[in-house]
Amino acid sequence: MSSPKKFDPNQFQLKYLIIPIGIVTDTDIPPSAKVLFGLISALEHPIDGCKHSNKSFSSVLKTGPQTITNHINLLKQFGYISIENGSNKNRIIRMASKTKDFMEQ
What we know:
This protein is mainly alpha-helical and 105 residues long. The protein has one domain: Arc Repressor Mutant, subunit A (Orthogonal Bundle). The protein has helices at 9-12, 21-24, 31-43, 54-61, 65-77, 97-104, and strands spanning 81-84, 92-95. Helix 4 (54-61) crosses helix 5. The chain is globular, with a radius of gyration of 13 Å.
């Protein structure tokens, strides 16, 4: 299994993030977790999912890895993302079907 990728915003040429209005208006999700969701959805590969580490997300969002862990757990708890393989080093993050429904509306 491959290692988590180091996030380089220039590598992906990200110019914007798409965050569904259902997530934007969810008062249980803090604003920085909503931005994290936008990064995850922008970086999710259709087959491989998103394999970026908490450390790489935290360097982009200028926060600590524990904050990213908390946000990922919250996004998972509310059904916006799913996690495969559990651990930070080998995990795969995917948008949950609930979120894909938001994106298609």
